[in-house]
Structures
1.
Amino acid sequence: MQTRELQLKAIERLLNIMDDLREKCPWDQKQTMESLRHLTIEEVYELGDAILDDDLMEIKKELGDVLLHIVFYAKIGSEKKAFDIADVANGICDKLISRHPHIYGDAQVSTAEEVKQNWEKLKLQEGNKSVLGGVPKSLPALVKASRIQEKVQGVGFDWDNRADVWNKVKEELDEFEQEVNLNQTDKMEEEFGDVLFSLINYARFLKINPETALERTNKKFISRFQYIEQKASDLGKTITDMNLEEMDRYWNEAKKLKINL
């Protein structure tokens, strides 16, 4: 591991490179906060993939890409005379100190849950009009549902136990089934959303991250389906030449071989 002095020098090196790129590189000169936005989102998803794969070297690489974007935005901010990287760093430092009175003040907490509850209360004291005001509108719906539930739980709006939550899941499933039987498309969509929301809530009680769980299933499905495609290729076929019985056979074979990644 690098010493703190070397860590600071590395950050300074990145800042200097960013200055050079903004001054001399036509592509970097052209970029705006708006043009970088979709690239930043892509980089964060790539970091998420590396974390799920538990690939530490890839995580290091993707963290570098995300850090570059932070420095890039700060550079543009400084050109607009709005803020610079020091303002960004000091801003988060001030927030962390303010939101951790049990470390930097005289508040007493004994669990991580109490820390989360204090965090939400402090945000309201700082002038936030709603507990849910900090949930980004553009979050994917699955992630947004998780964040909504975490935030209201932080101020005590929550179920008493997971059995009650599971009963709610079953209730929503019954209501969804009723609408399916009635073939009411709009109501089916509404009740399906309620089923998903209640399942996400139940996952929270089980300490399961629903986004991570679903993404692991996506990756598992992709790997197993690609195994079928490879088997088709080995037989001199394409996937469209296989019937469902053949595909099922190789799918089950992939399951037995535990082909998940």
2.
Amino acid sequence: MIHLYYGEGKGKTSAAVGLSVRARGNGVPVVFVQFLKGRAAGEVLMMERLGVTVFRGKAGDKFVSAMSEEEKSETKKISDDNLCRALDLCLRICEKEKSSASLKVLLVLDEVCAAWNLSLVSLDEVESLVRNPPDGVELVLTGRNPPPFMLELSDYATELRKEKHPFDTGVPARKGIEF
């Protein structure tokens, strides 16, 4: 099945992390790809301790809007490499898993909507994966402004809507809360 956590509200990544923890707690392998994120984050450290395989990164520490074309190009390369590595790992897990259970691995594509909208990941690869996920792979997508095909193809779609957020009043992101 395909899960989509989207919208302007806080909690998309947190929902995906929570589902990942639940899956690992039940013995399901989890592969977590974070697009456009490079800063250290507490949830990544904890997921790795639980045995989640995490692929992440971008070129530099800037927001995409402040990146040079060279940094955007390098970020796309990192995103495409991470997606390819994650898919390869998922397929290897599915091939190795001989159980009759249909769920063999949980694959999370965190901030894939932003990567898609900014063309910082292979659009063909992402669309192909969403339209035809490998057997045994449960797919989780997160981000703002999902392309229509993601919303249409998702089995679970949860929109998170912001009412208010401290960032709007100038409070910066806080370690342990926002990252």
3.
Amino acid sequence: MKRIKLYLSAFCLSLSFLAGAQSRQWSLEECIRHAVEHNIDLKQGEQEEENREIELNTARNSWLPNLNAGIGQNFDFGRSPSREGVIEDRNSANSSAYVQLNMPLFDGFRISNTIAARKLNLQAATESLNKAKEDLAIGVASYYLQVLYNKEILNIAELQVALTAEQVSRTDALVGAGKVPLSQLYDIKAQLAKDEVSRTEARNNVRLALLNLAQLLDLERSEAGFDILIPSLPDPVDGYRGSILPPDVIYEHAVALKPQIKEQEFLLESRRKMLKVAQAAYYPQLNLNLNYSNGYYRYFGSNDIANVGFSSQLKQNERKTIGFSLSIPIFNRFEVRNSVRTARVGILSQELLMENTKKALYKEIQQAYFNAIAAQEKYTSATQSVEASREAFKYAEERYATGRSTVFEYNESKTKYAQSLAGQAQARYDFVFRTKILDFYNGLSITL
């Protein structure tokens, strides 16, 4: 047993040395932060959020005056209007210019409710982006733990190679002493070759797991030495057992914190504001109108003497208007009524969607809770299996060292021990991941 612990320590030390030789080791927090900053889908979500902000800005500007200006030039031949408005037989030219301002004074609260709806849509887009960030963080954590698991499997494979290599040396000595037949030496060497193949596969699985994580992070090609930092995890049962809370307790926190619920709440309130926007068409609309216009007339032919100077005409022809316009809806082919009905249907649909989102959240929490319970039980059983298989392997190793058992018995015991270690590693990281999911629903950040 001391020898096994020595091998495990040596392998962990060698892996730490190799990891230190890499250009950089990423922690889980660094991986999540990098993924959030560089993920293309999140960038698209940011663009959607910016679109909602532009819509809000447009709605707010609806209160501003609408100011327009224009100029015109007309040439009349034959019968044409004079500056006094009389139709005469003469050719003339007319230059005109105007500046016009329109401003809403009352529109049935359409603009104010539209602004409120656009603001709620912006908040909903922000929460949708937050939900995408949380989903990405969970995905990164899953891939990160998969790398840790594969690294531990590689440790186990290294241990198997070291143990078998030691038995090759012992068997060679036993053959030389005439205690075991030469065939056992060939059998143990064959087993060493199999263990080395398993080690190669385990090393390749580590590379693939790192590649999957690097691709999820959208790392540049220059990150050839990408590796992760191996955290010092506490005993899962003692360190993470406190995360397993009843589903109802976690749900009470999650329903007030999770972005998917907030998003649906904002969208529902936005629908209610849009109902008021539709109802605004029932009200009269009052607008302020300001207008300034001017013009210059010039006559050709025998009437040239009737032309008045440019500056004099600008003083005489200017027109200033201040007016109010009141539009009263009477009958609009039921368009407003149907718009209001459509808005009410949208509210009901959004209420159902929000209720369905809450139910889905509770189901997810329930599943996460029972998965964590099952993972804890699995880890406890796997730990007991490791203890039992370790004792069995110790006994088989002693028997083989004295020549009282065959290579096959020794290999069978060693294989069971390796399988129990692998099962324990899988159960450990599965339990850690399940508890982190519960922490996530409880409003905590995903950390190791």
4.
Amino acid sequence: MDNLIIAGKTYSSRLLVGTGKYKDFAETRASIDASGAQIITVAIRRTNIGQNPGEPNLLDILPPSQYTLLPNTAGCFTVDDAVRTLRLARELLDGHSLVKLEVLGDPKTLFPNMVETLKAAEILVKENFQVMVYTSDDPILARQLEEIGCVAVMPLASLIGSGMGILNPWNLQIIIDNAKVPVIVDAGVGTASDAAIAMELGCDGVLMNTAIAAAQRPILMASAMRKGVEAGREAYLAGRMAKKLYSASPSSPVTGVISSSSKDQAA
């Protein structure tokens, strides 16, 4: 399968996964291994990557030498909080610049506050962060984030943690058709078919956490998600047949078919 390129770096996997909500670090690592993901998101406000000495450190099981860590601003509701969090991440990760920005607008729905997101993106890009940005599925806002200099736009499929799948494929398609940077579906994926549909539409990748971590068997679901993403990408590249409403087309040739009338004539 062809590779994903983000901020000039090449990845063979188009599945990005998070590290939250697992029962322990062992399950986290096993699930990530099963997913085949190379880009791993880390919620800096909730996960210890060195800021809390003496506590278990995620980097012990997911070393930056093996994975591309993607610090994110989950839980941030203001520009200041988001920017401060990613500055801390860069310090903890020795100058790491690839980050995921999300500025939330509502604690219940976790829908993004796009006014604050645009402001934060401008600040971070000026400070030489490579910003992958969580956004609503508004094509105009996605274009504005790209114009600011974000290296990837990440529209939601549905609300974070909802598992509702892609609720507005039309808006998503508009974003995909017009973007010059990678489009990564972020939030709302519930099962492998959701991931496959996103990839069939032409998304460059899919990011998920809850869909794997909250499954009854997370490691097995991680494996299913890997296959769903791969299948969806291959189907997109292959180019599906055209849909034909009320127009059947046999898959086998009809010429030379033996019919009952021809049998009668032979007799």
